[in-house]
Sequence to fold (104 residues):
Amino acid sequence: MGILGTIGSALGTARGVMGVVLKVIGFVPQIVEIVEKVASLFKKSDIPMTSEMKQELALSLIKDAFLTAEGFSEKDIVDEEGLNEALKKIIDGVVAARNSFGKE
Fold:
């Protein structure tokens, strides 16, 4: 394979990786909603979930999706520290947008 083939292959992989990233990020609002429903079950208990606990649960679910995708790609595509920071910001943004519409 020549240099053009190598570059084309790398670009195809990048598009594939970005496609996975965008798909997983697209699920963040749904994951936040699921976490909120789980947290509502704990509101009646003696141990309600804190905001930090909810964020960690959402982060764990989303990271698992990325790590699963990474496993299928057989490549190291996830920088876990960078992913954590980026996902925290995305989750915070989704929660802020959700809260701006008020409670149901």
In short: The chain has one domain: 20-100.
